Amino acid sequence: MNFSIQQKDLSRVIQEVQRAVSSQSTMAVLTGIRIEATEDRINFAATDLSIGIASFAEGDIKETGCVVIPAQHLGNIVRELPAEKVSLTEKDENVVEIKCAGSTYNIRGFPPEDFPSLPQVEEGLNFSLSQGHLKTLIDEVKFAASTDENQPFLHGAQLSINPQKMELAATNTYRLAYREMDFPGNEAPEETEVIIPLKTLQELSRLLDPKEEEEEVQLTLKGNHLLFSFPPITITSRLKEGQFPNYREVIPSSFNTTCNINRAELMQAVRRASLIAREDSNTVDFEFTERQLIITTRDSEIGQAYEEVLLEKEGPELTVSFTADYLLDVLKVLREDTVTINLQDESSACVFRSIDDLTYTYVIMPVQN
């Protein structure tokens, strides 16, 4: 194998695939990036057996071939090289020479035949979304997923598809984020529910372009794999096994108190109060009065915080405590200027929505003092 490529192009494609590299596997080859020079392009791939990311770049290919190079060494070296052409040449068996300007490195790799092939997901349920739309959809729910890998069915988001609509939901049992939309495919599918791993959602969010509203992401679902294709990148994800909670049952349908509040003002007030809150229990108290939301928190050693935000309220006054970070997470992703907060009482689940958007729902459980 022998090819040359611009440093910026090589660095870009390494960054695209590197996050799929395994950090805990007992298979050493999974710590590497597979590089294959073909007749017309250079293919790159990495996997931890749960998620695989592939991409490609163009270059000056003098000799085809395939190598697997340790991802950390490759990424660190290429990142520090000057912005000139970089040549990669297989010198000895599994040894690759990297040259750029006056720099030369010889890196020992792994046998390419030991690198597992990424699953082929060619036929199945197909539909597409724009990059910007898919990124927004993911960002609206992924933060609510459990970060505890010992809860595998909560360590991700459930994608539900039926002929009428598509839903994405994530929960850690203390909060729930849920978005619904019309199914974007041409053919009405059978009712399907799968759990997408949190790592897959995080990597998709990192790689998708939020401003790209024309370039489509092709999604293909078959068996226990889901493929996302947006050239030059392809992500193949193994789906989670387990029973996702019936989240529809925990979304309240009736409320005693409803408030409308300016989202930006509320977010700024909670962020300031959280500077004190995070030093202790990370909770803030919301007192819903006739015309104001009063936000307070205190720390026995530091002091206390007091914030006032104007609101429009219907229903009785009440005081509820929330985890500050759980509030900030949803206030960052709501789109409208006004947020609606719906409450039953001090101890029941509370619902946050944008004032004119009933397709997005955020449910948060109060903190019991």
In short:
With 369 residues, the protein is an alpha+beta fold.
Explain what you see.
This protein has 369 residues and is α+β, with helices and mostly antiparallel strands. It folds into 3 domains: 2-114, DNA Polymerase III, subunit A, domain 2 (DNA Polymerase III, Chain A, domain 2, Roll), CATH 3.10.150; 125-249, DNA Polymerase III, Chain A, domain 2 (Roll); 252-364, DNA Polymerase III, Chain A, domain 2. The chain has 6 helices and 25 strands. The chain has helices at residues 7-18, 71-80, 131-141, 198-207, 263-277, 324-333; strands at 2-6, 32-37, 42-47, 51-57, 60-63, 65-70, 85-92, 95-100, 103-108, 125-130, 156-161, 165-171, 175-182, 192-197, 216-222, 225-230, 233-238, 257-262, 283-288, 292-299, 303-314, 318-323, 338-343, 350-354, 357-364. A 12-stranded antiparallel beta sheet has the order 14-11-12-13-25-24-23-18-21-20-19-22. Helix 5 runs antiparallel to helix 6 (324-333). It is elongated, with a radius of gyration of 25 Å. The N and C termini lie far apart (65 Å).
Question: Can you lay out the helices and strands and say which pair or pack?
Answer:
Blueprint: E1 2-6, H1 7-18, E2 32-37, E3 42-47, E4 51-57, E5 60-63, E6 65-70, H2 71-80, E7 85-92, E8 95-100, E9 103-108, E10 125-130, H3 131-141, E11 156-161, E12 165-171, E13 175-182, E14 192-197, H4 198-207, E15 216-222, E16 225-230, E17 233-238, E18 257-262, H5 263-277, E19 283-288, E20 292-299, E21 303-314, E22 318-323, H6 324-333, E23 338-343, E24 350-354, E25 357-364
Antiparallel strand pairs: 1-5, 1-7, 2-3, 2-6, 3-4, 4-17, 7-8, 8-9, 10-15, 11-12, 11-14, 12-13, 13-25, 15-16, 16-17, 18-21, 18-23, 19-20, 19-22, 20-21, 23-24, 24-25
